[in-house]
Amino acid sequence: MKLTVKIKMVTLFASIMLVLSGCMLPDDEKVTQVTPYADQLETVQKAVDAFREGSGGMLPIKTKDLDTDIYIKYPIEFSKIVPAYTEKLPANSYETGGVYQYVLTDVEENPTVKLVDLRSAERIRELNLRKNINGYVPFNESVGENVYAVDYKAMGFKEQPTVPSPYSDTFLPIVVGGDGVFYVDYSIDLNRILKEQQPDVKVGEDIRYLLADNYPVLPAYSLPYTVNEDNEPVFMKKLK
Which of 42, 54, 158, 216 has its CA 20 to 30 Å from the CA of residue 175? Predict the structure, then answer.
């Protein structure tokens, strides 16, 4: 049996097991694992603040590379605060089977507990595996400067892979940069906020803060966005 066939079979089996394991969970437990509860965020925030005070300003975070995406750069290391500063892990954290990774933002001025939806990371890993099997990424039409839609049919998918939005009831597409890296496209939610709330934003500034500052879940695994002259969200970063 060829190696690529073996890899596909293993991937398919793992995907089936993941779906089955999710189906066997009681409905209330599924809700617990995917809901960004405010009280759990508050509990972890208090634990982080207590740890910081007791350690002379240190933060209970894992070490990441300097060039790591800012929204996933400071994951909380729960072993440093559980059970010393809080009784147990949050039920929706990935350490307990949930879909969220607890992270810190604004670590210099005001360390704030936020969430990263790891369903996006799982989908991107799936795409990367398919990319490695195929040996290339079939670029489709341009959706920004050096940012492209992906020809998912050429990758072997029956329909466009998406991820559930943490900000609305929609599903978000995934794009690929000229560097071959996959990213979640938050344009739908950013466009909604720009139209409904009409915030004062400027051309050239990264407007992802409209999501990061106002919601518990961060716009992770994304490219920077700004607005054009029509106040519409556009990709900002020029990829090499």
Answer: 216
Answering whether pTM is above 0.90, one says no
Mind listing the pLDDT tens digit for each residue in 149-185?
A: 999 999 989 999 999 999 999 999 999 999 899 999 9
DSSP state, residue 90: -
- Per cent of the chain over pLDDT 90 is 76
Contact between residue 29 and residue 21 where contact means Cβ atoms under 8 Å apart: no
CB atoms within 10 A of CB 77: 15
Domain ranges of the chain: 1-31, 32-118, 135-235
Distances (CA, A) of 180 to 111, 150, 162, 199: 32, 10, 17, 33
Tokens 């994304």 identify what position? Answer: 222
End-to-end CA, the chain: 38
Bridge partners, 75 (sequence order): 103
Torsion angle of alpha carbons 171, 34, 118, 45, nearest 10°?
120
Cβ burial, residue 202 (10 Å; 0-12/13-18/19+) = exposed
d(CA 8, CA 14): 10
Strand partners, 143: none
Residues in the chain: 240
pLDDT at position 123 over 50:
yes
Q: What is the pLDDT of residue 5?
A: 44
